[in-house]
Amino acid sequence: MPGEFEDSGSGAFSAAKFYSMRRPFRLLAALFAALLFAFPAWSQNVQLTGQVSTNTSGENLTGVSVRVKGSNIGTNTDSSGRFQISVPSLPVTLVISSVGYETEEVRVASASSPVTIFLSNSNVIGQEVVVSASRTPQRILEAPVTIERVSAATIRNAPVSNYYDVVTNLKGVDAVVSSLTFRTPTTRGFSGSGNLRFNQIMDGMDNQAPGLNFSVGSVIGLTELDVESMELLPGATSALYGPGGMNGTLLINSKNPFRYTGLSYQVKTGIMHLGDKERDPSPYYNFSLRWAQKVSEKFAYKISGEYITANDWLARDYRNYRRLGTTGEIVPGTRETDPNYDGVNVYGDEVPDQVPTFANVLRSIGGQVPFLRDYLMTMAGQQPTDMKISRTGYTENQVIDPTTKNFKLSGSLNYKLTKDIEAVLAGYWGTGNTVYTGSQRYSLKDLKVGQYKLELNAKNWYLRGYTTQEN
Question: What is the 3-state secondary structure (H, E, C) of 14-72?
Answer without folding.
Answer: HHHHHHHHHHHHHHHHHHHHHHHHHHHHHHCCEEEEEEEEECCCCCECCCCEEEECCCC
